[in-house]
């Protein structure tokens, strides 16, 4: 698979950036900053992992920011209005998010809509739904009532691994947030799904060439719907992490996050032309964005410049992706010409 | 022995005197503002000026991207903790940043809220803000001088549920005192031009005989001006009063389209915000509620607010 050189380049870029900020940004290489990086960007990595599936299918999901808000508001309403215990709230919020993702997939498959258009529409629908079910609007005073259910708030837990393995005697070791391990678990599961299962192979086949995949007997519809469902599910997980972090939810939760997640996925080497990429890359991509944003903030660079740099890096990643695609096409053309 | 001690003491004093102030450990103070609009830029400028006049203070600043950028503000708070600030002044973008501020307080950082309060949050050292209720009263008292009992008025709310903005409406009603006006329309604008236009249009369509419009924030005002002219109503037929004297209001007041606005003093907030943080760090007693004042802007004094 042609993933390797891209991933290597990405890791190299990540390492260089990390080293650069460690040397030049004050307090970048501190335990506290690493905690900020892990707790502030694990949910973004999870969103990027989810977003990889639609993009691998040559699609896109613009609605994940709204799905985050939807899952968050479901958790908010169930907990604070209906006093549902947390162990039921968590699966309910995830179910809502997965359902929203499934609906995206169904619209794309059965109405044959462009993923861009379909998810742009559902972005509006889901966000509107959030406002209409918002307990913050419906019940006075709820907007300032924090969620205290341990099942939810315990998602924001930090582990002192440094003391556990005895490293803390030598250096100040960061405490690891639970969200980081959730991210690692999702990464392991979905990466092995992509590599070892038939569903994973189907994803690459459908994304590489939809028509060929159909002719090869792959159930392209089911594959597509499943990919969008996974994307929704990941948005649900990210939402629960955010809700635990904020101890509440807001109507605007997740606004604009779809674009950052797409950026992370593309930077992580998932080709916008489909069929190429992993979920490992997007996770690195998310943390790369995190390293850059945190580093620039510590250097005192204004947020406008930060946005420009993020955009420039995205442009670079897309340009590199195009280059690889063009090269691949040329190679195929040469191969076919030689055979003819 | 005694001589040695005395010499040592003298030496210590000499060293202390010889060391310039900035060589001593500077106190790092953070300022986090909501998002890029002139209001917060003015606040930041004033804070920087204050820091420049107080060499013992090292100011670090940060700003979010939008009114909904909660994650961005939390990241800034965490970054400030990492940078080792001793205190911070912050304009909280939403009450949901409270858990992040709790972390700061737990790290021994003095937190002073500026401009907006966080209801029910106990961690703040002080609140430095315009008393919005008083600001609203100023608007109400002005309206009382130009309206008659029974006049129909419309209200462009800010973001319902945000106490600072709700207070501006409550204060205005209080300022009207015993004058009984008829509030015929009321709608949330989220302090945006777009919603300001449509809410004003809706009210004007239903009540063409409206006498006044009050807006709880600045951005909806140009929208209301447009809605009034679109409805074919003459400028001077409707009294338009805003809050903030920002975002096109100064121009509207000068052109006569808007009659008055309640100005806040962001520069005062920046200055007093950092001052309060510095005092708290030094362990001095601080006022829990620092009022930065408000003033009425009309055509007469608009020059002073440009």
Question: Key terms for this structure?
Answer:
heterodimer, A: 340 residues, mainly alpha, ABC transporter involved in vitamin B12 uptake, BtuC, two-stranded antiparallel sheet, 74% helix, 1% strand, globular, B: 306 residues, alpha/beta, Rossmann fold, 2 domains, six-stranded parallel β-sheet, 10 helices
CATH fold assignment of chain A: ABC transporter involved in vitamin B12 uptake, BtuC
The structural domain count of chain A equals 1
Sheet-strand content of chain B, in percent, reads 15-25%
Query: How many DSSP H or I helices of chain A?
Result: 15
Question: How would you portray this structure in words?
Answer:
The complex is a heterodimer of chains A (340) and B (306). Chain A is mainly α and 340 residues long. Chain A has a single domain, classed as ABC transporter involved in vitamin B12 uptake, BtuC. Helix content of chain A is 74%, strand content 1%. Chain A contains 15 helices and two strands. Chain A has helices spanning 4-24, 31-56, 64-80, 86-110, 115-133, 135-138, 150-153, 161-165, 178-196, 198-208, 210-215, 220-246, 257-267, 280-298, 303-339; strands at 158-159, 176-177. A two-stranded antiparallel sheet of chain A has the order 1-2. In chain A, helix 4 packs antiparallel against helix 12 and helix 13 packs across helix 14 (280-298). Chain A is globular, with a radius of gyration of 21 Å. Chain B has 306 residues and is of the alpha/beta class. Chain B has two domains: 16-130 and 265-292, Response regulator (Rossmann fold, 3-Layer(aba) Sandwich), CATH 3.40.50; 132-264, Rossmann fold (3-Layer(aba) Sandwich). Chain B is built from ten helices and twelve strands. Chain B has helices at 2-18, 38-53, 70-82, 98-106, 132-146, 163-175, 193-206, 220-230, 249-255, 266-282, and strands at residues 27-33, 57-63, 87-90, 110-114, 126-129, 152-157, 182-188, 212-215, 239-243, 260-264, 289-291, 294-298. In chain B, the strands form two sheets. Chain B has a six-stranded parallel sheet with strand order 2-1-3-4-5-11, with helices on both faces. A six-stranded mixed sheet of chain B has the order 7-6-8-9-10-12, with helices on both faces. In chain B, helix 3 packs parallel to helix 4, helix 5 (132-146) packs parallel to helix 6 (163-175) and helix 7 (193-206) packs parallel to helix 8. The interface between A and B is medium-sized, with 33 and 30 residues.
């Amino acid at each position: 698979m042609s993933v390797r050189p891209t991933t290597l380049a990405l890791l190299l870029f990540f390492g260089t950036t990390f080293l650069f900020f460690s040397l030049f940004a004050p307090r970048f290489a501190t335990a506290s900053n690493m905690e900020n990086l892990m707790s502030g960007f694990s949910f973004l990595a999870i969103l990027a992992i989810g977003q990889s599936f639609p993009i691998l299918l040559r699609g896109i999901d613009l609605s994940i920011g709204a799905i985050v808000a939807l899952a968050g508001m479901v958790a908010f309403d169930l907990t604070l209005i209906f006093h549902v215990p947390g162990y039921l709230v968590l699966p309910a919020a995830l179910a809502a998010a997965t359902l929203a993702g499934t609906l995206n997939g169904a619209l794309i498959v059965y109405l044959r809509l462009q993923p861009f258009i379909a998810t742009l529409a559902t972005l509006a629908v889901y966000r509107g739904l959030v406002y209409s079910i918002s307990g913050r609007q419906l019940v006075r005073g709820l907007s300032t009532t924090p969620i205290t259910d341990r099942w939810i708030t315990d998602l924001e837990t930090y582990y002192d691994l440094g003391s556990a393995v005895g490293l803390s005697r030598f250096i100040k070791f960061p405490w690891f947030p639970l969200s980081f391990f959730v991210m690692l678990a999702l990464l392991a599961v979905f990466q092995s799904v992509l590599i070892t299962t038939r569903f994973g192979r189907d994803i690459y086949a459908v994304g590489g060439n939809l028509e060929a995949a159909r002719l090869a007997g792959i159930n392209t519809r089911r594959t597509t719907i499943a990919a969008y469902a996974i994307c929704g599910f990941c948005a649900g997980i990210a939402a629960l992490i955010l809700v635990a972090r904020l101890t509440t939810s807001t109507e605007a939760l997740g606004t604009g996050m779809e674009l950052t997640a797409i950026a992370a996925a593309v930077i992580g080497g998932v080709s916008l032309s489909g069929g190429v990429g992993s979920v490992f890359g997007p996770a690195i991509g998310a943390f790369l964005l995190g390293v850059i944003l945190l580093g620039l903030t510590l250097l005192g660079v204004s947020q406008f410049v930060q946005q420009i740099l993020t955009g420039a890096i995205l442009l670079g990643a897309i340009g590199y992706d195009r280059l690889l695609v063009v090269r691949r096409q040329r190679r195929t053309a040469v191969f076919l010409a030689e055979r003819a | 022995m005694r001589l040695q001690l005395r010499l040592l003491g003298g030496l210590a004093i000499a060293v202390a005197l010889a060391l310039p102030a900035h060589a001593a450990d500077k106190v790092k103070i953070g300022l986090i503002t909501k998002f890029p609009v002139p209001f917060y830029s003015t606040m930041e400028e004033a804070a920087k000026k204050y820091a420049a006049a107080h060499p013992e203070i090292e100011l670090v600043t940060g700003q979010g991207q939008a009114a909904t950028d909660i994650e961005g503000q939390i990241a800034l708070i965490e970054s400030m903790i990492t940078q080792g600030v001793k205190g911070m002044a912050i304009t909280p973008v939403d009450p949901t940043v409270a858990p992040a501020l709790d972390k700061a307080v737990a790290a021994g950082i003095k937190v002073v809220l500026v401009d907006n309060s966080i209801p029910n949050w106990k961690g703040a050292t002080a609140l430095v803000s315009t008393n919005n209720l008083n600001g609203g009263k100023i608007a109400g008292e002005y309206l009382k001088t130009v309206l008659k009992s029974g006049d129909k008025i419309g209200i462009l709310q800010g973001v319902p549920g945000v106490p600072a903005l709700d207070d501006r409406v409550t204060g205005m009603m209080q300022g009207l005192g015993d004058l009984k006006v008829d509030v015929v329309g009321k709608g949330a604008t989220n302090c945006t031009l777009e919603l300001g236009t449509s809410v004003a249009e809706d009210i004007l369509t239903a009540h063409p005989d409206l006498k006044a419009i009050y807006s709880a924030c600045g951005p909806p005002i140009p929208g209301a001006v447009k809605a009034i002219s679109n409805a074919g109503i003459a400028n001077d037929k409707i009294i338009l009063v805003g809050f903030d004297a920002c975002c096109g209001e100064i121009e509207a007041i000068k052109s006569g389209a808007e009659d008055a606005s309640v100005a806040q003093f962001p520069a005062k907030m920046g200055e007093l915000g950092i001052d309060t943080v510095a005092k708290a760090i030094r362990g001095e007693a601080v006022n829990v509620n620092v009022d930065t004042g408000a003033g009425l802007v009309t055509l007469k004094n608009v020059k002073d607010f440009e």
